Amino acid sequence: MHAMQYEITLPADHDMGIIRDRVATKGHLLDTFPGLGIKAYLIRERGEHAPVNQYAPFYLWATPQGMNSFLWGPGFQGIVRDFGRPEVQHWTGLAYEEGPASAALPRTATRHRTAVAASVTPADAVGAGLDESRRLAQSPGAVATALAVDPRHWELLHFTLWEHTAPEAPGERFEVLHLSAPERERLTEGRQW
Q: Helix 64-72 vs helix 74-83: angle between axes, to the nearest 10 degrees?
């Protein structure tokens, strides 16, 4: 499993209805994309819970071939054409779990990134991350959760989809406009090694 996200930060006065319309008309195009486990079409609107307007899709890839096909194919080229080429963040998958609300359509998502301090061994950091991931996956309203790591910057990432409003927890909160999940069943549950 590979996790991937790009963030398109928009002007403070940007009409987010434009992004909502874009997802409503184009979101279904990845509903059958080979190699894609999950794509959550995420936005943040400037205000109480977000400092910026942002379109920030998040992907869990079941295969690297699917990820590569998307990045070098027409899907991502549309993003580049319309918004410029964003930085694509990516993480190696460590764990994936379905939650008690796994059959529900998610309405919100949380993303929590934490740096792994130089004084902490990577195995200890990942062990603590796995414990937290299991706890998140068992939370009421959790649809699914993933744990991933960027070993270049030593950053752990927890990403969780929620049936309704995300509970108060650390990290950024997003609204989910659409969920494409053509190969969700190929995202192996549990630890990825």
A: 50
Render the burial of 132-153: b for 16+ CB within 10 Å, e for the rest.
Answer: bbeebbebebbbbbbbbbbeee
Q: What is the pLDDT of residues 73-87, one digit of tens each?
A: 998 999 999 999 999
In DSSP terms, 162 is beta-bridged to: 108, 142
76, 26 Cβ separation under 8 angstroms = no
Structure tokens at 115: 């740096």
Query: What is the pTM (predicted TM-score) of this model?
Result: 0.96
| Domains recognised in the chain with CATH numbers | 2-191 (3.30.70.100)
Interatomic CA distance for residues 10 and 52, integer angstroms: 7
Q: What is the pLDDT of residues 105-133, one digit of tens each?
A: 999 999 999 999 999 999 999 999 999 99
Q: What is the pLDDT of residues 147-159, one digit of tens each?
A: 999 999 999 999 9
| Cα separation, 27 vs 176, whole angstroms | 11
